[in-house]
Amino acid sequence: MAKPAKVLLNVPAIKADFPILQRTVRDKRLVYLDSAATSQKPKQVIDATSDFYSRYNANVHRAIYELGEESTREYEGAREKVAAFIQAKSAMEIVFTKSTTESINVVAYGYGLKGKIEKGDEILGTVMEHHSNHVPWHFVKDHKGAVLKYVDVNDDGTLKMEQYDALLTNRTKIVTVTLCSNVLGTINPVKEIAKRAHEVGAICVVDAAQAAPHMPIDVQSLDADFLAFSGHKMLGPTGIGVLYGKPDLLEATEPLLGGGEMIREVHLGWAKWNDVPYKFEGGTPNIAGAIGLGVAVDYLTTIGMDAVRGHEMEVTEYALEKLARLKGVQTYGPRDVTKRAGVVSFTIDGAHPHDIASILDVEGICVRSGHHCAQPLMERFNLPATARASFYVYNDLDDVDALVAGIKKVQEVFA
Amino acid sequence: MSISYDMYQEQILDHYKHPRNKGPLAGASKNARDSNPLCGDEVVLHLKVDGSDRIAEVKFEGQGCAISQASASMLTTIVKGMPLAEAGGLGRDAVLKKLGIPLSAVRLKCALLSLHVLKLAIGQKADVGT
């Protein structure tokens, strides 16, 4: 993989593709810095979903008529695009879900709770996981008696790898880790983590919700066993998510949803399931969402994921530098932008993050405030909450300057 | 000045920076705590009730945004010396009037957290309509 260079993208040209970025908020230019929560959508994606409903809306995999042929072709085409985007060997390794959360739940239920995990088996997570990579494993603990263990983080936001080694034993059956923290921006050494997990016979589940939109992903190189991400954080529609799985593991995983589409034959009292990945897609899927995600993948691929990553490193470097110069402002996570993504959590002395977000909102700046669905991590850093700015392809250095000016306003109010 | 800057008018910042009746209360007879899961705002209320069922002393503890903490501080000044029954009957308008600012739906939860905790302390499970 080529090392991404820190070079800015042509942001004005990209911004022109995003209708929402043309609007104002209270007569101020919209400065959208909450892409870690959800990204904005380019008109290509919006048009593709509307095009589906206007021109060829039909259910997939059923209809004999032309519309159904078209919708099935586009839906399956999106699966191919997603497979290529993460370097999967085959589109059959791609399951469409509604979200990262659902993807992880499919694994926790189908592989853990209904499958391979027995009492006393250990599941090893980290304290920096999003709630969606904590709570599904609680279910496995509660229903199967699995033991949950967690790798802590260092003060600089990196994982304690020596502790990982110490906690990893032949009792460990599942290692589950985020590729990129939604609070600290930390990019975890998942390739190394997966390698060591495999050495003790464990599988490695990867939460790529914050990574897939922002950096090149190669599931074969990572040797991830399962990998989950969401469409809406990567320029795609809401309600569409992805679960990648190695074929043998998808075979060994029981479906979460029973119903139409996921079956081969149904009789009174029993059914035979459909093949992977369809056995996981019970019910009519989010066809427009999948097609929209496919177009989002096209959009990102046209820019190039190395270029996306390079751009965000440059914007993040600039932001960390600017914020470091503000007295009374703290940022969290690694300082080295080669080890982190464009998610910048910060606090301001004397001002609660909620108040920071309210005052920035007056300036037309959207940032997130709160615990970011990562309460265990906030507890680790002894923080009730942080404010968080996150960057994407449509953010430039002017947006960072607007944030810095906004922070100065916050400091004036709470001086 | 826009609506949102008004949110941080002098009075609210004063209560936030110099909270009234903040701290623990030894011998409190009624205590309650709640938090706002959205933003982690937390308010704990301690009440000492005298022989004639009046709130003789009240203290709050907590952490959170200016709106949640200022409104808790203000609420203690409202209920101090008030008959318990009257405090139990306080509606959201009592707090919102004192705050005197327009609030979005999300910030309303911050503003009404302390009133909710007061109701819990008094033993009511009343919904304050956040």
Name the descriptors:
heterodimer, A: 415 residues, alpha/beta, Aspartate Aminotransferase, domain 1, 4-stranded antiparallel β-sheet, 14 helices, 39% helix, B: 130 residues, alpha+beta, Sufe protein. Chain: A, 3-stranded antiparallel β-sheet, 3 strands, 19% strand, globular
Please tell me how large the radius of gyration of chain A is: 22 Å
Oligomeric state of the chains in view:
heterodimer
Shape of chain B: globular
Give the strand content of chain B.
15-25%
C-alpha termini separation of chain B: 27 Å
Main sheet overview of chain B: 3 strands, antiparallel
Note the gap between the termini of chain A.
48 Å
At a glance:
The complex is a heterodimer of chains A (415) and B (130). With 415 residues, chain A is of the alpha/beta class.
Fold and architecture overview:
- The complex is a heterodimer of chains A (415) and B (130).
- By secondary structure, chain A is of the alpha/beta class.
- Chain A has 14 helices and 17 strands.
- Chain A has helices at residues 11-15, 43-56, 66-85, 100-116, 135-144, 161-167, 190-199, 219-222, 247-251, 287-303, 305-324, 353-362, 375-380, 397-413, and strands at 24-25, 28-29, 31-32, 94-97, 122-126, 147-151, 172-178, 203-207, 226-230, 241-245, 263-267, 270-273, 329-331, 343-348, 365-366, 368-370, 386-390.
- In chain A, the strands form five sheets. A seven-stranded mixed β-sheet of chain A has the order 4-10-9-8-7-5-6, sandwiched between helices.
- In chain A, a hairpin with a 2-residue loop joins strand 11 and strand 12 (270-273).
- The longest helix of chain A has 20 residues, at 66-85.
- Chain B has 130 residues and is an alpha+beta fold.
- Chain B has a single domain (3-122), classed as Alpha-Beta Complex (Sufe protein. Chain: A), CATH 3.90.1010.
- Chain B is built from six helices and three strands, in the order H-H-E-E-E-H-H-H-H.
- A three-stranded antiparallel β-sheet of chain B has the order 1-2-3, with helices on one face.
- Chain B is globular and about 45 Å long.
- Classes of the chains: A alpha/beta (415), B alpha+beta (130).
- The interface between A and B is medium-sized, with 18 and 20 residues.
